[in-house]
Amino acid sequence: MSSPNTPLAQAQAAWTAICTGGPYTSLMMVQHLMGAGGKTTKGFLTNPKAELKGTTAMLAAKTLAQLAPTWQLKTGRCTSFAVKAVNDLEHVVDSKNVSVFNFEVFDIGRHRIARCTKTGILIDSSSTGKGGAFVLPVDNWHSFPETDASWKYCVKDRKSKFERNGNADPRLVKVSAEPISAKQAMLICLDEVEKQAERSVPTLFRSLDAERQAVFHGMVFWNPKDHALELVQDLATKTKMIVQWPKNKKDAKGKVTGLDLTMQGTPETLGACIDAVEQFVKIYGGPFGGAQWLADGINTISEGWFQGACELWGCPKLVV
User: Fold this and answer.
1) What DSSP line would sit under 142-190, residue for residue?
2) What integer pLDDT is reported at residue 162 of this predicted model?
């Protein structure tokens, strides 16, 4: 373990605090986009793609500080993780009052990370190394046995380049040729959330083991388009239960004609679904699941969606 005063130890402390403080989730981000567009929960659930379309563009003129609800709190995605860590560490100074860190943010295709130009320290939410943050020297692939991902930072023609995956096929290597601003990173992330939210609004619980390595637990997964809330118990085997509301019926031309009432639940199945969500967080949320589900009020957001879904589609059933 690094000395508590070294840059690496400070970066690892920031990394582990973010990892355990809140889950990987886009719930707060979707809610922020809905607020930017003046959208309602029922409107979003009814037509998520159309309701969120263009909402990220509405935030383009905002400052990073004004986007704080999407990165500065306890919850968020990989980009939020990197931007928050950079923000927390940029104020650290040495005995001569000189900044210890100088981070650059990179977009490597649906994933954002940050690397310090002074120390070589990398911040990546998907790291499975002890303490999370690690030193990534120039021109060396770095990997951990617990994950297939590899990282490489190289400097060529006076341009920085970050590569991830370490695949021999250059077509499969994710490359970021130039660093981007933290605000640019957040807007890229929010645009992805906007486009994915109709089928994917995940909340993945996480913790650290005794060796301070990241452990990922169960996932609460909203799929509005399919009128479903999935409770994924095991990411590897994809074992899950589904809180399922009646789906839309469509005619031969794909036009929605109503709900498939053969899938309609009852007040009893509704109660079973509510209990299932509560028990899922307790059993599959890991040691910090309860606190992470409360972080930033994302449980309240999810409960609001649950209520809205019941008002739109009736009682759900639990599909095991």
Assistant:
1) EE-TT-S-EEEEEEETTEEEEEES--SSGGGSEEE-S-B-HHHHHHHHH
2) 64
